[in-house]
Amino acid sequence: MPRPFHLVLLSLGLAFAGAAWAQQGTPPTAPTAPTTKHLHAIDPQQQIERLTKQLQLTPDQQAKILPILQQRDQQLEALRSDSSLKPADRRAKAMSIVQSSNQQIDALLTEPQLTKAQAMREKAMERREEKRGQQAPPSSSSSSGGHP
After folding, report:
1. Which tens digit of pLDDT belongs to each residue from 100-148?
2. Which of 2, 24, 106, 136 qualifies as a cystine partner to 141, CB 3.0-4.6 A?
3. Residue 85, H or E segment
């Protein structure tokens, strides 16, 4: 069951990045390929502010998490600008970066914060799936086979 766990980790990381990016109201910097727009990292300071508000991070946690977010931002930016990778390889590498940073962040959270962070990740994954379902043609997104 590690695959769904990886998807949850990736979804939360991308949801945090996407939510903060949407709040910025700025377009992606360099649309090199359709898959790279999801790798656009947002300002780590905005991420820490959002996490602080949602998880009630202590100042000590903020001081430890901010460098993790900054490192993730740098790694995703480098990945986004690496045109030598195939889209599937780029997605896999992005998932690895996000998973690693999420594990580092999770290690700094209290049990209630971790529970809430996991719920946020699951909700973000659900939103991404809903959005993906809305973008797909009706015939390809109906896996149940029947319509109401």
Report:
1. 999 999 999 999 999 999 999 899 889 988 888 887 665 544 444 444 4
2. 136
3. none
Query: What span, in angstroms and rounded, lies between the C-alpha atoms of 40 and 53?
Result: 22
How far is Cα of residue 74 from the mean position of the Cα atoms in its chain? Answer: 14
The whole-number pLDDT of residue 131 equals: 87
* Domain chopping of the chain, boundaries: 45-111
Radius of gyration of the chain measured on its C-alpha atoms: 16
Distance CA 58, CA 105 (A): 13
Helical spans, DSSP H, in 25-143 = 44-55, 59-80, 87-106, 111-135, 138-141
Closest CA to 46 of 74, 23, 63: 23
Summarised one tens digit per residue, pLDDT across range 72-98 is 999 999 999 999 999 999 999 999 999
Q: Rounded to whole angstroms, how far apart are CA atoms 90 and 79? A: 7
Instruction: Name the pTM for this structure.
Output: 0.64
Other C-beta atoms closer than 10 Å to the C-beta of 2 total 6
| Alpha carbon distance 30, 89 (integer Å) | 19
